[in-house]
Amino acid sequence: MTWSIIARDPSDGAIGIAVASRFFACGAMVPYVGAKSAVASQAFCNPVWGTEGRDRLQAGEAARDVLADFVKRDAGQAIRQCHMMDAQGNFVAHTGADCTEWAGHLIGDGFSVAGNMLAGSRVIEATAEALVQYRDQPLPRRLLAAMRAGEQAGGDKRGKQAAGLVIHHGEAHPWLDLRVDDHGDPLAELDRLLDVAGERYLFFADAMPGAQRFSGLPTREALDARIEAEYDRRLRAGQVSRSLSTDP
Asked: CA-CA distances (angstroms) from residue 135 to 50, 60, 125?
């Protein structure tokens, strides 16, 4: 199942993973992101490649060494697919020999893409090309545009069902973590959720405490001002909220 991207934004160090699949809740199973590292474990995935890998990469181990150890230890490595980025920004990938065709991976400058059960190699190629094309966009939009390009190139050959988007801004906790678990057009639904997040949620995410800023923003005046300014901007632009929330 699945194709995914890991990317690092050189402008601010943000790390993100985007994933899509004709498999339920792939966003819960595939991405493992930390403050400085990321792992995507997929195909007949082994979640320990994700959890142990993220911890070891965070501790400073090289991605090539961690991945080589996993392949050596795991009797099921032939049906695993994994790509990862270490704390130094190095990328590596493994596509097991028995992963369902089409399966493969691609490593570029500041990113990696991998997939299996795809319509063809063009899926990851188009994903990578779009990631480069939209490099001036914010990382969440860039990742989503890249995944849409991969989908247009054929995506998962079985169809669509789920997607996920996770972004960390140098913290152990996510800045953004969106999932679509069961939907006819999951990437379009991710786009809607990202737009709704931009109304208020991302301002809260920017203001949240972190390891080096334990109190975050201790008062809410600046936060409220940013939210109000965004509300006014959307109003002037005629941008209607896409939220499905209800009022009392």
From this structure: 26, 27, 16
Q: Band the pLDDT of 1: cuts 50, 70, 90.
A: low
**pTM score:** 0.95
Q: For 112-161, how does the pLDDT look when each residue is reduced to its tens digit (9 = 90+)?
A: 999 999 999 999 999 999 999 999 999 999 999 999 999 999 999 999 99
Rounded to 5°, the CA angle 153-175-31 comes to 45
Give the 3-state secondary structure of the chain: CCEEEEEECCCCCCEEEEEEECCCCHHHHCEEECCCCEEEEEECCCHHHHHHHHHHHHCCCCHHHHHHHHHHHCCCHHHEEEEEECCCCCEEEEECCCCCCCCEEEEECCEEEEECCECCCHHHHHHHHHHHHCCCCCHHHHHHHHHHHHHHCCCECCCCCEEEEEEECCCCCCCEEEEECCCCCHHHHHHHHHHHHCCCHHHHHHHCCECCECCCCCCCHHHHHHHHHHHHHHHHCCCCCCCCCCCC
Q: Looking at the chain, how many residues does it have?
A: 248
Among 143, 140, 94, 87, smallest CA distance to 114 is for 94
Locate the domains of the chain by residue range.
3-183, 203-236
Instruction: Tell me if 87 sits within 8 A of 36, measured CB to CB.
Output: yes
CATH 1.20.120.910 applies to domain 3-183: no
